[in-house]
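Summary for the steering committee. The consortium agreed at its last meeting that each partner would contribute one worked example illustrating the joint modelling workflow. Our contribution is presented below. We chose a case with several input lines so that the handling of multiple components could be demonstrated. No manual editing was applied between input and output; the record is shown as generated.
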Amino acid sequence: MYNFKYQRASSLDDASKAAAAAEDAEYMAGGMTLIPTMKQRLAQPSDLIDLGGIASLSGIRRDGDALAIGAMTRHAEVASSEEVKSAIPALAALAAHIGDPQVRNRGTLGGSIANADPAADYPAALVGLNATVKTDRREIAADEFFTGLFETALEEHEIITEVRFPIPEKAAYVKFPNPASRYAVVGVMVCQAKDGVRVAVTGAGPSVFRVDAMEKALATKLSPQAVEGIKVPEDGLNTDIHASAEYRAHLVTVMAKRAVAAAIG
Amino acid sequence: MSATGIGAAVRRKEDYRFLTGNGRYLDDISLPNQSYAYFVRSPHAHATFTVGIEKAENAPGVIAVFTGADIVKAGLGGLICGWVITGKNGEPHKAPPHPLLAVDTVRHVGDPLAVVIAESYAQAKDAAETVEVDYQPKAAVTSPTAALDNSAPQVHADAPGNLCYDWEIGDKSATDAMFNKAHHVTKLELINNRLIPNAIEPRSAIGDYNSGTDEITLYTTSQNPHVARLVISAFVQLTPEHKLRVVAPDIGGGFGSKIFIYSEETVAAWAARELKRPVKWTAERSESFMTDAHGRDHVTHAELALDKSGKFLGMKVSTVANLGAYLSTFATCVPTYLYATLMQGQYTTEAIYCEVKAVFTHTTPVDALRGAGRPEATYVVERLVEQAAREMKMDASDLRKINFIPADAFPYQTQVALQYDSGNYAGSMDQALKLIDYKGFSKRKEQSKAEGKLRGVGFSAYIEACGIAPSAVVGSLGAGVGLYESAEIRFNPTGNVTVFTGSHSHGQGHETTFAQLVSDKLGVPFDNIDVVHGDTARIPFAMGTYGSRSLAVGGSAISKAIDKVIAKGRKIAAHTLEAAEEDIEFKDGNFTVKGTDRTMDIGAVAFAAYVPHNYPSDELEPGLDESAFYDPANFTFPAGTHACEVEVDPDTGVVDIVKWVAADDFGNIVNPMIVEGQVHGGVAHGIGQALLEGCQYAPDSGQLLTGSFMDYGMPRADVFPDIEVATQVTPCPHNPLGVKGCGEAGAIAAPAALVNAITDAIGASNITMPATPEKVWRALNAAG
Ligand SMILES: Cc1cc2nc3c(=O)[nH]c(=O)nc-3n(C[C@H](O)[C@H](O)[C@H](O)COP(=O)(O)OP(=O)(O)OC[C@H]3O[C@@H](n4cnc5c(N)ncnc54)[C@H](O)[C@@H]3O)c2cc1C
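What follows is the complete predicted structure of the assembly.
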């Protein structure tokens, strides 16, 4: 790790001012991705601005027909929250299967989506549940938020403050974990809400994506059989030492089928 | 049986210290005025280079920067391989130089070429980035079979064709004759995947120099500190043996990877003398991945010839073994004398021939890893046997039974040099069949089917050769060392006992097992016995721990020392009790005059020996302190049958292990709880190999693709089923304890059992380890 300056911001304003003033600032949430990257000397920010002291960034609250979850809320809090478990059990279950207890106690919703790892679980939740990302500057629809491999719509030094998840009628997330890292090789969120059915896939491609054909089929009938015959094209899917594009394409169908079964179960 | 004697499931003494955070692992040690080393390593698999160190020398906190040239200038030798294999052509293997720091060529990713020593670790690491290395990358080869290609890049100029040796064992023409008259021949192409050892404690060392005595102390994560001292003194020629002390304190796991003598530890010892300051180095986890000697990596073609009734007539095996870029300390004996000599398995196969080509590649050196050669052999034999049963439409357990060496046929001379001393293979098979409820399997298969799952069962009737010995035989086969073990039993005047053992405990629980042994035989309370190991200044010269040898060889040495203590104690008691020596009986810690109540306990005898006021001083020296060396007459041959059942999810290819039974024969057992733990650990290791673990290199660039836990699949607890362990006791006839060894058995047995079960479930003839979901899914699709 190279030397850096550490600052703990006490307000959003404080944080963005500090970031603007620094040569090359990086916000820090739980440090679960950032710190290992710095230890491997792959990142070398001049200043680390810790968001951990900004109370308004943490917490889970009911907001009309949605759940609003602060950017600094830890995975473990989402997993164990009674509010989340009763309103969107699929989201609590998703959070409960991220990494290991240490990671869940440190890792945050905001950090996960800002990082936009292609194998992360939360992106499927945001897109699948049709969430909205709130920042210190604006609101961004989940569909517009994830723009590519480790890429988001965030501008320089923009801070995610919370994510608003509309409460669905039915939803379930099923993940095929990477045997080594336990990130998603493929993860599928299936959700039925007032405005329709969504199928969001993480892990399979460079960034989370929706499967239009499955959404249409499920809109007609929300049953596992509806998606059974629908295969996503393997073109453009990830291939690595753990799974080929062909296998990932196959898994999308299998996981989607299982997610539908779980959602209606 | 007493509560703490032989056979008792005594809780481990050492665990209090470990569980309360009071273990003293290497990185826990820090010396005054200590400096820190960081190694500059090649990012390329193969390159020539020049190096500039001026900038680094002037970086903040830097004390010194050394390169390969400095090592040469200092007159130090390179690392050696301690076992010379003689090939088919009668020539010794090729052993190209293995410099401590590369001089002009690097041969694998992670190959060290310079070391920066600074006031802090961070400074050393920062400065290492300023070492200017100008690399000329060259083509690399990582696969063992590709390395034999005429056009393959050459790893060493003095090993043409990348061949280290081409070796054979067994009777080729007799084997061919058997194949000519065979009714059926089963053939398999097998890959034994490359594994990264991943001990929980990374390698670490502190070199410390005392200029007053000219003595170097090397604290190091070693399974065999005396062997490290011998190699560093006699071959690297750092300093004479009596001026080098090697200390291996609590060590967090080895699995073989800490047998070997590596560059970093040796350089730390040397640099400490150069700088007259302690030098500490601790591997980062990525360095462990890149530089701890890897294991396995075989490509094998194997054939089994059977007659009409299913009797095994002959076996032919041809293996290419990857040794990596340099010969690690015992690399050469692993795919030969620890592998091909086990091709007899548990069977009466009439003729066997095995040839092995060992090759250099641009990869991390490969050496012994838990099981070392024997898992590879068991995998070959047990995959062939199971596949033959399927092809011959015979029950896999029945086919084994008609071929087992019968229990009354021991000693049994194999076709591949070894002589098995004892065994009851059918007994273990029957135990396994019962435990797994083999009769109920077809019903369970139906149930699984109804739930959309494919169920399979697999066996592995393994055998291993442990406690490698005797010294004269291994010497004649090319070993550079003897393979005995040493022990000393030292009574203290107040009657408690310190046991010094040459074996080294790095997770095995020796402090408990050996104390049980001594307590049982000498009648001294368990808590009054301490076991000392891991320090060349305290223990006699010794060979250390690997190959499941500690109890069979190290324990036998302790047993011999105990006999000497009793013999001397008898003399002292005879004198004190005024009786003839022949009339003194020793039992449960008491020396008694036969047929009388005149008695003296061993504590009183020890006191008399150290306060010899009334003592036979003209015949006997004072003191009660005896040492012994034990050189076994033969290997020991633990064996048994493991059986497992899996359920495969046909939609994803995910394998769920639902049942595992281990029916082992380890001879006599000192601590059944520790044995069970060793079996569990071994099975976990084997399941890891079969299902998850697999070191991968990019074939063109030679980059390590599985360089962290993000990509290298270490098994976790949720992968394992309950493991049922049962033992049968067929004592080893040639060591005083009748014990055989248990530390590697699970790792040897498990891969074949699991792959047999998976292939059974999916109806495929073969699948390459690790059997990842995608591979299983593909095999399932291919099988239709
Ligand atoms: C061992 C391990 C296993 C894991 N397994 C999984 C898994 O199974 N599934 C999964 O989805 N994830 C997994 N993760 C990732 C984990 O869930 C974390 O969410 C992720 O690492 C981000 O960590 P963090 O929240 O601590 O953010 P940090 O590491 O602190 O930050 C990550 C990035 O986000 C930026 N950032 C953080 N907060 C904000 C904000 N509010 N606004 C703008 N930018 C911000 C930072 O500047 C930084 O660039 C795993 C991580 C580890 C270490």
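Residues 298-469+634-783 of chain B form a domain with the Aldehyde Oxidoreductase; domain 4 fold (CATH 3.30.365.10). The two ends of chain B are 57 Å apart (CA to CA).
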